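Subject: sequence -> structure tokens, single chain

Hey, anyone have a minute? Need the predicted structure for the following. Not urgent.
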Amino acid sequence: METLTISLTEEEYQYLKILAGTKTDQAQVADRARILLLKSEGMTFQDIAEIMDLSTRTVQARVSRFRKNGLNSALFDNLRPGRPLEISLEAKDWLLSAAQQKPSVLGCHLEKWTLKGFYDYVQSHADKAGFPRLSVVTKVYVRKILMDAGIIWT
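Reply:
Had a minute. Here:
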């Protein structure tokens, strides 16, 4: 028998609400966030599948990944063999170092970082900092790097 809900922390719930409501992030990640939010509200796999025009199997797979391996596993696919990751550890270190600075210290006219403000900063400064690949990564990927480091902004 299907368990009707999944348990989310308040932080996970708020993060999923942001992802599910955005139009600029990858549609696939937003859909996965919506699946988890609907499941946390007690909807059945079948109901979620109908609302989202997905197969029940797809919904079950995402919920199962959440239950087994947590939020990131449910939202993002594992890296696959093939083309190597182009984001170096040094590039990630630069990104995380910038994220820990106050925006004003880096010349930004923001009181505090938002994901959009930080993403715009990364896109406009990464190339000059010697990390051209970071200037074209998606906002979803920047958010994932930040989240993996325990940094979450709205």
